Amino acid sequence: MSKPPDKRRHDALFAAHHDAVWRFAVRRIGEDGAEDVVAETFLVAWRRLDAVPEQELAWLLGVARKVIANQRRGQRRHANLTERIGHELALGAEEPREPAIPADAVLAALATLGERDQEVLRLVYWDGLDPSAAARALGCTAVALRVRLHRARTRMARALAAGGFPADRATRLTPTEA
Length: 178
Known about the structure:
The chain is 70% helix and 0% strand. By secondary structure, it is mostly helical.
């Protein structure tokens, strides 16, 4: 069994290096995301306190650099997924390709939906789960999931129509397997 982290050591580490880690993050990603980077960096430090070497600041900045890289990868994945769902919304099952719905319009429409609708759409379209797997992830039957998916598509179509896009686009979505 491992010993618990030394809170006093972590507090001293935080007090000594918070500002430097924050400035490092600001220079790379701006003030908006800097505190998140600092928080994640010191969380890693807490979890790996025994691994922090004498050159604490250098180690912390290395952790912060990796945190920023992970955030950027996540943002790229998010942008790619948003673009993909926009393309899927634009594609008819057997119709010629239509221009993709812009990612910001997809996100805006998605944001108007309830959490349950957002979750079912994300699991099926963004995470690529088939309805059976999505049902397991949500703890419901495949039949219930298909009903939820149908309703979520309908609400998404309405939200897109409110944004000026053809309402039938969201109902023509073709997930991995519908």
